[in-house]
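SUBJECT: A protein chain and its fold
Encoding: whole-number codes for local backbone shapes
RECORD BEGINS BELOW THIS LINE
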Amino acid sequence: MPRHNLKDAIPALLPEELIQTLAGNGGVRIERIVSRGHGSPAGFWYDQPEHEFVLLVAGAAELELAAPSERLQLGPGDYLTIAAHRRHRVNWTHPEQDTLWLAVFFADDSGPASGRSGA
């Protein structure tokens, strides 16, 4: 079985964020994301149907979350889980070094029968 490293094969030029699916199935998707000064476009918010566990492996970033409003400065080793449909955006990533994320997306199985409501 081949061995891989999250820090391998990062292009010297990165005009756009690099997003690669590393593994997954119907209910889970694991991605490597590499940012270098990238952020969400002005006015853009992610609003995704699945939960997202995100670990900042290297670099630095600021996330903004809505409802309730929060700004989080992230450094290496910081992680959080963003609930499905919680709007969020990347305000900035370090412009001179790679910001390396490991993101795990997994199904929102709360469903209407659970009695839970989304944020």
User: Anything to note?
Assistant: The chain has one domain: 18-108. The beta strands are 18-24, 28-35, 51-58, 61-65, 70-74, 79-82, 88-93, 99-106. The domain at 18-108 is CATH 2.60.120.10 (Jelly Rolls).
